[in-house]
């Protein structure tokens, strides 16, 4: 009988096992010393079957602390809401600046002798910058093409 040769482990597979060990440590399932020993072994392992031994006594990711994952998701949602709120404030400030500058431009034109409404050009670019700011923030928030 020919036994199949062992399959080499990839860096991605090692990283996944390392994340499970780190999560187990954060949950109090492993001590720091145990986690350090296991992580050293994970990154020194060459084959896939060696990786399984480091997490054999740990629950699978699906079973590990669903309540903690829910709390983490709520924390992320709260942080995202805070970021979104700050973004909305930034857009509101930008809009206020555009309005103030536009009022200044129109009042300057009204006091002058020009019959040509020249403030239309700078006001156009001010409003375009505001639209770009709003669109860019929405794209970054939704993961659109402007994401950096």
Question: How is this structure best summarized?
Answer:
By secondary structure, the chain is an all-alpha fold. It is built from 5 helices and no strands.
Any key phrases for this structure?
5 helices; mainly alpha
Largest sheet: none
Proportion of residues in extended strands: under 5%
The CA-CA distance between the termini, in Å, is: 54 Å
| Rg over alpha carbons | 29 Å
Structural class: mainly alpha
Helix content: 55-70%
Write down the secondary-structure element order.
HHHHH
Number of helices: 5
Unreliable residue runs: none
Shape: rod-shaped
Number of strands: 0
What is the mean pLDDT? Answer: 80
Report on this model:
The protein contains five helices and no strands. The longest helix has about 45 residues, at about 65-110. The chain is an all-alpha fold and about 150 residues long.
SSE inventory with pairings:
Blueprint: H1 11-26, H2 32-44, H3 48-52, H4 66-111, H5 120-142
Helix pairs in contact: 1-2, 4-5
